[in-house]
Every structure is written in structure tokens, then in C-alpha cells.
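Action item from last meeting closed. Structure (597 res):
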């Protein structure tokens, strides 16, 4: 969530900074503003005019947080209030942190949820006043937002809430499984027959199971598209509309447009995605060819772009299932796919099919993420992880709920993910590299025994050793081992014994966590141990920020490595007695040229 926060006093600024720190750890992006007399650091923007700030925040942020009197907040937002569906959340907290008031967009915008979180941070109380919350009645608009469902009829949503508050029955019809018992007042099946008012969850917003129907449409459909060079957006839009009509899918269900990466500069495709407000997801030919499923095949397409089908494979590349197979008109091909929404109802703790996937993101960039990893993240309704890793994927999943915890909060992070999964959520826990290599998979599986009914799946990822080795060349072509130089969880004496054993056995070695500000000399100490068994001319290398912005690498000798400047974002490689530097690449011969296996 993008939060714009403002304070007007010194005490308010201190509280705002405290709240912001906690929200950032949760995964929020927070911008702080205060009058010039208070803006005493780079973390605070100067507030010149409150009216201009409010106008900008309404247009750009998902939530506004006032640390002030409610009157200041009300007067600032008054000119901009338009609609409960489109308005951002607005929350006000007094500078003592005692009372937190959600002023605007409590359910759809998430102000109630934000107010409760701010109250937790401050040790105060959230003054939630929405009628459904006060009376403990099912809030259909808030539940729809949490589950990624689009509310089609706003007036019908009001009627549903009003009926439930009056103690009347409201029907429920869903094309998808509902996890947990129906909240009080909702009835389904034969019990809902004859009711005038009800909720329908379906891709098709033309179904009318009730005289007055509130349609909730899952925002999970992907349109896979292929097109000839220079195809205008109008032709693409016409076929997509036809496909949506044929599949009985409401246009609001469309969440993404997918195609092959050679179409990255196709203006018509990009214009159509922009018109729809959808992310344009692009995949390489190899990625598309690796997608499993029963797809149509074209030799012409295979010869042209390197994969036998673009639209169907692209639609399913994130783990979705095909809804409508390829349709082709005037050089445009379209297929539709979707991931089934997981609809856990309030109060369904332990009753839903909660799932938890531990996902390896790879060393950094999105290009190094596997298709299985992408599929797991696309299918999740909640993604949990260390703050740095959440920030790596934030722009790729702007509509998903993201929760982050700081370094050394690993057990807390795992328990948070397990608890959410036990509530019936589809949770993905993200790790850098591979989750089974110095990642969270082991701890999650250990703790999962305490959480009955939660199924934990481990999704492999490209490890730092794999990613860094590819940057350097081929340093791990023969037997190799990985050793972490962090002594937070392993005594240094044991690390030393492992280094000696690896050096004596002539292993190639990849070194994780080679240095930090608290242990700046660990790589030097490791090199001294290795130098007692290896030549100082042994070829070595290191890679910093693998697959991320600022990636850099160096090939050097073991003697030079001893004094290299490295950090926690660096992976170090020590060659064996046969490793060579060949044309600026680090290569450990496997022995094929000598008839070896």
C-alpha cells in the first residue's frame, strides 16, 4: 500500500516516523511530509500547502494518514471526496497515538484495516464506526476487496449491507468453492430459493440468480495475445471483447495481458494493455515452450518466433488454467486463462484448504524466476517475506496483499505465514535464491507441525551459486560445495573445519555471506585457511548483486581475494587445482576433453 502521511507538530512528527517504520516493515511505501520548520531529515518532504498536498495524495496514494486533529484532516480532504469505491483510505490519529479514526473508504479502500494496524503500532484504539463492523455483520465490500473481487453494482452492495443489518436473509451463489461456514444472514442452495436479494460470485456478470443481484467478479483472468507486426489496438480490442463474450467473462475480470517478449515494442499491444489498465506480461520463447498443457501447435509460429503457440501458452504461463482456447481473426490470436480464486469466508479458521508455498525468487531479477515460482505467486492472495525480497517483487504484484518483516524476524515471519494459511488463505513465503539453500523452507516445515491442516509446498529457485557461476563462466563444472561464512547460527570453529576439509579435498567452493559490517574480516580469515592448502594463484571470482541493478563481478587469484571488498550481497567462488581463467571467464574443466565423464 502506498501511504502519504503528514504531521504538523514535533510530537506528531515523532509519532509519524514511528508508525512509518512499522508500516514499511509490513511492506508499505510511506512518504512523510511536515512543515518546513519540522522537516529536519531527508526522510521528510517539506509541506508547502496542505491543499496541494491533499490533492496530490488523493491522486497518487492508496491511503492518507493524518497525525493531527480530525478537523484538519476533514477540511483538507473535503474538496476531493468523490466516491467510496475510488477514494483512497483516509485515517487520522491524534499525536499521542490514543485514538485512530478511519475517516474515508473504510471497507473498499482499507481504512478500517489500516486504522487497526496503526492502533496496534501506537498502542491506541481504532474508532471504527462502519455499521457492519459495529454490529459484527458480514461486510461484503471489505471481504470482496480482500479476496480480489470486483464489485459490479455499488447500490446492490449497499442493499446487501442494509439487509444484513436489519437481520434479513441474503442469498449467496458462487461458481467457485467457498471455504468455511457462511456468515450469519447469508444462505445458499435450496435455502436461497425465492430470495429477492443475493450475491453472485462468477466471471459472468449477466447471471441473475436473484431479482436484485450483487455481482462479485474475480479479477484473475489473463488474456494471452499474439499479433502481426503493426496491428492496431482496435483490432486487438475487438477480438478480446469477442472472446470475453464467448467465454461469458465480464471485462472487469481481466487482470493482465500476456505475450512473447519479441512483442515488447508492439505499440498496438501496449496501447491495448494501457486502455484496459492491465499489466503487460512478456515471456521468452523458451519460457513459453516450457509451459505445460494441451495447446494447439503451429509450425509457422514455431519457425517465426521459436515457440509453437504464443497466446495459449502466454495466458497460462503464470500457472493459470485455460478458459478459452485460441481464437484467430485478421492476424490476431487470443486465448483466455484464469487462476481460480480462493474464497475463505470470515471465521473460517482451520476450515478452509489453507496452502502455503515457500517460493525461491532466484538471485534477483524477474528473468531468473522460474515459471513454477511465478505460478505460485500469481495463485497466492497473500505474499510474505523479508522486506528486501518483498520490494524486489512489489511492482510485479501491485494488487496483492504483501506483508514484510525485517532481518532476524525469521520465526515470526514463518508463524505469520502459517497463521494466515490456517485461516484459509493462499500464502506464498518468498526467499531469495532457493528456499532450501539457507532459506526459509526448513524452518517453515519445522514449525508447520504446530499448524494443523496447512499444506506446505517448496518451490525451487535459482540459487546465488547457480546465478553467480553463470556470470563468471563455468566455475562449478566439477565437484563443489557451498559454505556460509556467517557465524550467527554456526560456530566459527565448525566453519573453519569445513573450510579445511573442502580445501584438502580439492573441491570448488562457493562462499555465501562472506562479510558484513559486524564481521568484516571473515573472508580474509577464510582465505588464510584456504591458502594453507591451496596455491595463492588459485583462480577465484566474486559476483555482487547477482541479477539485480548494479551487478558487478571480478576474477582474481586466491591471494588477491584475501583483500577483496565484499558484502552480504556477494557470492564468492574459489576454484580447485584445475580451474583456469579463459578469456576473462572462470572455468573448471570437467575432463570431457580428456575422455573423462
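Sequence:
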Amino acid at each position: 500500500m502506498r501511504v502519504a502521511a503528514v504531521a504538523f507538530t514535533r510530537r506528531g512528527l515523532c509519532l509519524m516516523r514511528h508508525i512509518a517504520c512499522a508500516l514499511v516493515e509490513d511492506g508499505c511505501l510511506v512518504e512523510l511530509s511536515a512543515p518546513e520548520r519540522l522537516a529536519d531529515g531527508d526522510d521528510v518532504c517539506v509541506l508547502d500547502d496542505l491543499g496541494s498536498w491533499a490533492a496530490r495524495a488523493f491522486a497518487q496514494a492508496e491511503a492518507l494518514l493524518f497525525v493531527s486533529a480530525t478537523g484538519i484532516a476533514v477540511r483538507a480532504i473535503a474538496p476531493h471526496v468523490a466516491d467510496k469505491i475510488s477514494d483512497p483510505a483516509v485515517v487520522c490519529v491524534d499525536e499521542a497515538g490514543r485514538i485512530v479514526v478511519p475517516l474515508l473508504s473504510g471497507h473498499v479502500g482499507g481504512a478500517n484495516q489500516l486504522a487497526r494496524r496503526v492502533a496496534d503500532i501506537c498502542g491506541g484504539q481504532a474508532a471504527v464506526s462502519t455499521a457492519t463492523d459495529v454490529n459484527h455483520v458480514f461486510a461484503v465490500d471489505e471481504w470482496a476487496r480482500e479476496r480480489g473481487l470486483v464489485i459490479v453494482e455499488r447500490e446492490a452492495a449497499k442493499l446487501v449491507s442494509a439487509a444484513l443489518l436489519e437481520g434479513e436473509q441474503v442469498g449467496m451463489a458462487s461458481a467457485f468453492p467457498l471455504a468455511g461456514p457462511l456468515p450469519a444472514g447469508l444462505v445458499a442452495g435450496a435455502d436461497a430459493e425465492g430470495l429477492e436479494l443475493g450475491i453472485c460470485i462468477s466471471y459472468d456478470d449477466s447471471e441473475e440468480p436473484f431479482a436484485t443481484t450483487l455481482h462479485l467478479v474475480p479479477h484473475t483472468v489473463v488474456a494471452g495475445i499474439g499479433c502481426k507486426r503493426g496491428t492496431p489496438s482496435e483490432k486487438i480490442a475487438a477480438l478480446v471483447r469477442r472472446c470475453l463474450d464467448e467465454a461469458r467473462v465480464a471485462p472487469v475480470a481481466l487482470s493482465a495481458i500476456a505475450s512473447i517478449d519479441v512483442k515488447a515494442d508492439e505499440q498496438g499491444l501496449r496501447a491495448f494493455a494501457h486502455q484496459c489498465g492491465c499489466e503487460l506480461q512478456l515471456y521468452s520463447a523458451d519460457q513459453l515452450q516450457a509451459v505445460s498443457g494441451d495447446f494447439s501447435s503451429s509450425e509457422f509460429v514455431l519457425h517465426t518466433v521459436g515457440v509453437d503457440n504464443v497466446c495459449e501458452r502466454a495466458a497460462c504461463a503464470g500457472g493459470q488454467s485455460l478458459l478459452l482456447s485460441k481464437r484467430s481473426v485478421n492476424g490476431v490470436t487470443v486465448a483466455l486463462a484464469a487462476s481460480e480464486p480462493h474464497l475463505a469466508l470470515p471465521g473460517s479458521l482451520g476450515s478452509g484448504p489453507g496452502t502455503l508455498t515457500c517460493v525461491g525468487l532466484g538471485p534477483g531479477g524477474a528473468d531468473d524466476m522460474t515459471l513454477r515460482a511465478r505460478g505460485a505467486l500469481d495463485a497466492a492472495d497473500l505474499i510474505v517475506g523479508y522486506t528486501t525480497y518483498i520490494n524486489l517483487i512489489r511492482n510485479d504484484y501491485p494488487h496483492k496483499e504483501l506483508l514484510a518483516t525485517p532481518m532476524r524476524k525469521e520465526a515470526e515471519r514463518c508463524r505469520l505465514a502459517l497463521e494466515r494459511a490456517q485461516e484459509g488463505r493462499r500464502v506464498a513465503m518468498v526467499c531469495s535464491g532457493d528456499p532450501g539453500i539457507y532459506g526459509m523452507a526448513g524452518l517453515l516445515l519445522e514449525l508447520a507441525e504446530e499448524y494443523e491442516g496447512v499444506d506446505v509446498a517448496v518451490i525451487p529457485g535459482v540459487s546465488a551459486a547457480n546465478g553467480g557461476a553463470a556470470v563468471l563462466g563455468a566455475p562449478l563444472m566439477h565437484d563443489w560445495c557451498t559454505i556460509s561464512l556467517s557465524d550467527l547460527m554456526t560456530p566459527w570453529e565448525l566453519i573453519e573445519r569445513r573450510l579445511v576439509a573442502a580445501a584438502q579435498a580439492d573441491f570448488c567452493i562457493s562462499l555465501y555471506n562472506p562479510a558484513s559490517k559486524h564481521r568484516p574480516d571473515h573472508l580474509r580469515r577464510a582465505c588464510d585457511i584456504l591458502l594453507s592448502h591451496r596455491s595463492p594463484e588459485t583462480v577465484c571470482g566474486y559476483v555482487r548483486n547477482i541479477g539485480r541493478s548494479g551487478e558487478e563481478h571480478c576474477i582474481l587469484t586466491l591471494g588477491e581475494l584475501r583483500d577483496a571488498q565484499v558484502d552480504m550481497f556477494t557470492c564468492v567462488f574459489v576454484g580447485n587445482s584445475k580451474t583456469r581463467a579463459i578469456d576473462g571467464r572462470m572455468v573448471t574443466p570437467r575432463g570431457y576433453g580428456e575422455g573423462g565423464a
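Note appended to the action item: The mean pLDDT is 88.
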